[in-house]
Amino acid sequence: NAGVTQTPKFQVLKTGQSMTLQCAQDMNHEYMSWYRQDPGMGLRLIHYSVGAGITDQGEVPNGYNVSRSTTEDFPLRLLSAAPSQTSVYFCASSYSTVDFVSPLHFGNGTRLTVT
Amino acid sequence: AQSVTQLDSHVSVSEGTPVLLRCNYSSSYSPSLFWYVQHPNKGLQLLLKYTSAATLVKGINGFEAEFKKSETSFHLTKPSAHMSDAAEYFCVVSDSSGKLIFGQGTTLQVKP
Q: Is B8 touching A (CB cutoff 8 A)?
């Protein structure tokens, strides 16, 4: 099994450009989520989904959109990139959200730079 | 609201000596607590989790953590550090809706 696959690994954008970060999992997990990781701040939740067709905002949702049309895929869209969105982005999934008894499985991250 | 504080941003130990990474949490109810590890340029991997069963939790690679409600702590320990343990470690608490709140991270350096 591939687990959680994120593409691309690296991306450089100019301010105002748009792009989509891709995330796919092959474990039939219902829960999927996007985090951003910034130095000294741990990981902060951007958006999450508890199943196909269901999404919700996390701690830092502004500037990002998500959709969940299938169980496998959970893309993250930046509509108009800003330098403040320079970060490392992680997609994570788990089988269940019931008190997170099942662990989160993380992708290897996308390093995004906005100039 | 739930929160988690990792008391050290950087810990340095010699190979073969004990490891202690400290974590305090704040929660209005009995939380679930986790430790995740991140090796360079990789995603995070679960080390261990506490979900209101035994207070001493054993994880992978010889790590363990003890839940101490009176001290609101969940410190991570390992008796003998290995070079491969060098990584960043995150203490995590679940909030009342099941979302995870991450600490700021502790970088563990292991010297030969």
A: no
Which of B42, B51, B104 is closest, CB to CB, to A42? B104
CB contact under 8 A, B32 and A104: no
Residue found under tokens 């690679």:
B61
Report pLDDT digits (tens) over B75-104. 999 999 999 999 999 999 887 777 788 999
Report the distance separating Cα A87 and Cα A38, nearest Å: 6
Residue pairs between chains A and B whose CB atoms are closer than 8 Å: 55
Tell me which of A4, A44, A46, A106 to substitute to probe the interface with B (most B C-beta atoms closer than 10 Å): A106
Q: Beta strands of chain B (E only): which ranges?
A: 3-6, 10-14, 19-21, 23-26, 33-38, 44-50, 56-58, 64-68, 73-78, 87-94, 100-102, 106-111
Within 8 A by CB and 6+ apart from B101, the residues are B2, B3, B4, B92, B93, B94, B95
> Residue A98 — very low, low, confident or very high, per pLDDT cuts 50/70/90?
low
Mean pLDDT of the A92-111 span: 82
Q: Compare A71 and B97 and report the one with higher pLDDT.
A: A71
